[in-house]
């Protein structure tokens, strides 16, 4: 799939404020600083970086919608695991993200971003386990692969898969990406293209 048109649509503070479910949605989520904006920008490959909108004040903790090719929505979800926000705010934040993930009828797939430089992190494992248990369709996307030697990336990916095997029979589809080199970009877009062909939304 080629992206020939991409633009910011709206920011939604909760599920009720999301746009009418007219397009299939592909959502991107990960801990803050995982490389989510960079990946979205690399995928969209527009002259003006798409995901800068998500970083503007007031939108960082919102569900940010980007309209792609007038046929699907790329949904930028707030990062989970904000250590700096107060306990109460964190709870609310998790609640509206989980509300979206559990109840959004036109959500086709979640891209769960994981920093490939680290050994498996508890929060990432807990989140993927939760999605698996809830039956939310997701794939894994390891980011920043250019920052490490390929062998070291593979070790971290294998370790993550190994940890998942404790509660998961088949492993999810997994992409190893770099926004700097463009690695994995074509594969992710191809996957979205195929998923679009197979969805009835
Ligand atoms: P976000 O908070 O998840 O949206 O993360 P950003 O996309 O803003 O990236 C956080 C930092 O990591 C920035 O300094 C990026 O330049 C850097 N970064 C993101 N992706 C990559 C990548 O694939 N390779 C390298 N070398 N740096 C990256």
UniProtKB/TrEMBL annotation:
The keyword DNA damage does not apply. PROSITE patterns: G_ENGB. It comes from the Bacteria. Residues 22-198 form the EngB-type G domain. Keywords: Cell cycle, Cell division, GTP-binding, Magnesium, Metal-binding, Nucleotide-binding, Septation. CDD domains: YihA_EngB. It holds the Pfam family MMR_HSR1. InterPro entries: G_ENGB_dom, GTP-bd, GTP-bd_ribosome_bio_YsxC, P-loop_NTPase. The keyword rRNA-binding does not apply. Its cofactor is Mg(2+). Belongs to the TRAFAC class TrmE-Era-EngA-EngB-Septin-like GTPase superfamily. EngB GTPase family. Necessary for normal cell division and for the maintenance of normal septation. This is Probable GTP-binding protein EngB. It comes from Rubritalea tangerina.
